[in-house]
Amino acid sequence: MKRLLLVLLLLATPLWAVEPDEVLEDPVLEARARDISEGLRCLVCRNESIDESNASLARDLRLLVRERLLAGDSDTEVVDFIVARYGEYVLLEPRKDGANLVLWWAGPGMLLLAALVAALYVRGRRVQPGSEPEALSEDEARRLDEVMKDE
């Protein structure tokens, strides 16, 4: 029983990141703040959202999100404000526009290019029907006989 309780407590630790004094009184605004903060990266913890992080910078970002929501900003405006301030790295899922399109399409593009090169290579290695190798010349046949006799 104690082990189960310990496991449950360890699984619930990310829930403790948002401190009680940060929670908004309006449940709708709080739900919006949680949705936004789940998509923002903690700049200290790297691959952890600010909603899960206990870092002081993550706390500052959570408070900033709630402050912007109380000011009347939409979800998109809040995210744009934070991206303008901290850069696109703060997004856990990068946007799929502009220069990022090169990054999003580079992987599939390289895969298609590799498949094309492999297909051309295999096609070039295939023996054409009706094309037989040339017969050995008399000198080549004599030399081959000599080599075979030596063994």
Quick one: CATH superfamily of the largest domain?
Answer: Cytochrome C biogenesis protein
Please state the overall shape, judged from the principal axes of the Cα atoms. elongated
CATH class of the largest domain: Mainly Alpha
What percentage of residues falls in helices of 4 or more residues? 55-70%
CATH architectural designation of the largest domain: Orthogonal Bundle
The protein's oligomeric status is: single chain
Separation, N- and C-terminal Cα atoms: 79 Å
Structural class: mainly alpha
Average pLDDT metric? 83
Helix-strand sequence: HHHHHH
Low-pLDDT regions: none
The total count of strands amounts to 0
Strand content: under 5%
Number of domains: 2
Classify the fold: give the CATH topology of the largest domain.
Helicase, Ruva Protein, domain 3
Give the radius of gyration: 32 Å
Description:
With 151 residues, the protein is mainly α. It has helices spanning 2-11, 27-38, 56-70, 75-86, 100-125, 138-150. The mean pLDDT is 83.
